[in-house]
Amino acid sequence: DTGVSQDPRHKITKRGQNVTFRCDPISEHNRLYWYRQTLGQGPEFLTYFQNEAQLEKSRLLSDRFSAERPKGSFSTLEIQRTEQGDSAMYLCASSLKDRGTGNTIYFGEGSWLTVV
Amino acid sequence: GNSVTQMEGPVTLSEEAFLTINCTYTATGYPSLFWYVQYPGEGLQLLLKATKADDKGSNKGFEATYRKETTSFHLEKGSVQVSDSAVYFCALRGAGGYNKLIFGAGTRLAVHP
User: Fold this and answer.
1) Chain B interface residues (partner A, CB cutoff 8 A)
2) Is omega for the bond preceding A43 within 30 degrees of 0, making it cis?
3) Which of A95, A114, B11, B45 is most buried per CB count within 10 Å?
């Protein structure tokens, strides 16, 4: 089991540029989540997919943010026209819709974004 | 809405000291409760969980008991080690459906030899 994989781990970009993060969930996990974590704070929910359907989006997810999970496997999170306030760690997580496992949510190691 | 409140850090302890990190929650129904740990530069790892009232989650010497009457899920460890230094997050997941995790702000623990 390879766990949740995120790429890139670190990204430095200039303000106004677009960035894209990729997440590969644990194999066969049908639920996928994106969170954002700023320094000294707990993770904040951004969006959730079940298979390829995006079922919930937080109000934190402005129009500049878009997430996809086209085939119900990997997901991408794109930020357009980045701003300095977007600097944060973007965490991906996945879980399996199965009552027997208690729906434990597993996190990746995160993608650090620095906007300069 | 649902929320989680944790004691502020940092918590600084000597090795082998007793640890308590307080966590209280506000939620409708019967949420599941979790403790996650984050080591420097890494993502979150599930430490322990409890899914119903009076359940005790335990792992690696850490324990937490789901107390519905006090809406609490305090994390404890009898004897901390330097390697336990990390940030600890209390979280809840609402009852029913997929519901997302809602996290507290985190408590940084520093253990000195």
Assistant:
1) 4, 32, 36, 42-46, 49, 51, 89, 91, 93, 98, 100-106
2) no
3) A95
